[in-house]
Design brief:
The structure is a homotetramer.
Chain A: E1 2-8, H1 18-24, E2 29-30, E3 33-40, H2 46-58, E4 62-68, E5 75-78, E6 80-82, E7 109-111, H3 116-125, E8 130-133, H4 140-155, E9 160-166, H5 170-173, H6 185-204
Parallel strand pairs in A: 1-3, 1-4, 4-9, 5-8
Antiparallel strand pairs in A: 2-3, 5-9, 6-7
Helix pairs in contact in A: 1-6, 2-4, 3-6
InterPro entries (chains A, B, C, D): Peptidase_C15, Peptidase_C15-like, Peptidase_C15-like_sf, PGP-I_bact-type, PGPEP1_Cys_AS, PGPEP1_Glu_AS
EC number (chains A, B, C, D): 3.4.19.3
Catalytic activity (chains A, B, C, D): Release of an N-terminal pyroglutamyl group from a polypeptide, the second amino acid generally not being Pro
Chain lengths: ~200, ~200, ~200, ~200
Amino acid sequence: MKVLVTGFEPFDGEKINPSFEAVKRLSSSIYGGEIIRLEIPTVFYKSIETLRSKMCEEQPDIVICVGQAGGRARISIERVAINIDDAKIPDNEGQKPEDKPIFFDGENAYFSNLPIKKIKKELEGIGIPAEISNSAGTFVCNHLLYGLMYYIERDFKKTLGGFIHVPYLPEQIIDKKGNLPSMSLENIVKALEQIIKTSIKESIT
Amino acid sequence: MKVLVTGFEPFDGEKINPSFEAVKRLSSSIYGGEIIRLEIPTVFYKSIETLRSKMCEEQPDIVICVGQAGGRARISIERVAINIDDAKIPDNEGQKPEDKPIFFDGENAYFSNLPIKKIKKELEGIGIPAEISNSAGTFVCNHLLYGLMYYIERDFKKTLGGFIHVPYLPEQIIDKKGNLPSMSLENIVKALEQIIKTSIKESIT
Amino acid sequence: MKVLVTGFEPFDGEKINPSFEAVKRLSSSIYGGEIIRLEIPTVFYKSIETLRSKMCEEQPDIVICVGQAGGRARISIERVAINIDDAKIPDNEGQKPEDKPIFFDGENAYFSNLPIKKIKKELEGIGIPAEISNSAGTFVCNHLLYGLMYYIERDFKKTLGGFIHVPYLPEQIIDKKGNLPSMSLENIVKALEQIIKTSIKESIT
Amino acid sequence: MKVLVTGFEPFDGEKINPSFEAVKRLSSSIYGGEIIRLEIPTVFYKSIETLRSKMCEEQPDIVICVGQAGGRARISIERVAINIDDAKIPDNEGQKPEDKPIFFDGENAYFSNLPIKKIKKELEGIGIPAEISNSAGTFVCNHLLYGLMYYIERDFKKTLGGFIHVPYLPEQIIDKKGNLPSMSLENIVKALEQIIKTSIKESIT
């Protein structure tokens, strides 16, 4: 059983991205699954290509992409990605698409095929606040999840795939205004390991 | 150097109170100071009496009271307590005072004499989000800080005293609505240890 | 030019629903368009049927459905509806579907074909805070927008359709906890009239 | 019966201040009271002097100061002012005091003597969300309330005085990030008129 887990490069002026900080700290083997880690550029299309290329090479059973959702308080399990790029800030190569479809021959939206409700329940069971999210936004996170599920539907039909948004780390909110939530890196890592475990159990059955 | 650190009993239907959970986990010696831990009943007046009695017995150099401020995202260093009890929920013995002065012969308010700005800065220096708060509310937390500073002004003039509000723990927000912030127990403990250290440094100079 | 504007029945224990309160107060003629008002039951499927039946009868050029999004601060212009019903609370007839597709033969999602960006810009031009929303949730609001666009794609190809979420009214937050945003009924009505105007301009060109 | 009602100049880069926008629109006579309007500079000490000078001239029975509290959702009735200036941003003349007492011979804090609980109740009775606030901050709003009550205690013992914080206007949040609450100018004016009425009733009895 191979599990590909990705995190993003920092973006929007941040020095770190909690998603890849957590992915880096994952054990190399979880619940019998081999963990393959990948950092994804925060760039439209290049992100999808980086992921697809690794999927071709590794043929993973499960793909879990992770991204930062600054301002959210809980581990946020994405349900769906929509066929639109609409950026309010530029990506890491300066692209700022507005209201553009991602793939002209794609569906309007794709649903993650991870067991999202079980993941929520099992995270809460180990004391981690979690929620189902119905929007991954319209920036590179939604873009990547859309690309992942587009290629799963075409070329990797047996693969489970989905996207997890994680809160800011505590140190990221120090210089920001407002009552912004955060989550410790330890708890984000613990959450990802549980998500991998739940996904492996689902994949086996 | 003796440092008395207090936390509260759970209240308002909660099963745990992050303040005493964190206080329990403090080392018994921090930066050369002997740490004395005390759980305080979440009850008007009984809280102050429990604290005053321990202060008489131990004659601490520093008193740091800790309480839960559900909904706050940062370690919250209280600046001031006001001479009013005004409860929206009953305390743990069913008392629910409305707009009552705490001590008729007390000042309208007392300021904490901890180095609150230094504490904020040093917490941020170790990656913990912190803020100065100008209100500890009008429930038992404000009540206890008021009582602490009232007695410091009268009977313990050399003692440093103050109040720290801490966020919910992650597990406390699981069943609550909304995008509620939380902080891991590890980070709350780390924060309290830093606060004790900064206060000891201040006390020595 | 006919414009059908719908609001919902109160739900979730509320006594009023700001959406239909505002729809009731719309002028019967706006920018040359005849305004047809309709109250929709907050019930899965019956909501869509009520709307479809009225659309068959009136053959409107534009359909704007309005719903309450308690907790949002701005007029929220929905971009997309997804093919899922997933209720956390029962609808007004006690149904509480979980993770069920709305129409088995429908797309994964439909996009509103209202000029959502122009609407946002023109609302802001008259001093009303507005935002594009990428999720109408998974309750009856998303359900109705999904049904609307499903039937527009099949049977009413020239019709413009979309969904507007409005904040709580000020009186609705009085007995609720927290720093909840609201919007005055006057401003919600003013916003809907501007949205109708912008949509009519789009429909003509 | 004379009622002096003050609002502030815009500050912090804002073009308007909802407090004086609302004060300007008050009727000149409310519930038998003559309404005197005054704009206060958002400047430490000059604000208090402007107010005190007008109080000497007019000898009002009631003084209600109004200020903007960006981010609050409700009409916020201040309970208390504390003897500290601690500015995070400069005032309108560039002063930025840190941890300075306002008056060396003043109390640690003064309580408003308006009927704050009745005001809350009567505002809610007319559909306006209201709350008691236990902190007016440490900027010019707290400074002015402190100065008002300091002089009431010394020189205007029969005068009722207090401070009301009002939310942003809807147009002020358009270009700001986040789910910021606001209140319509009409509702702020309606709230102030009710507050004046409740205060006059209290003053008579």
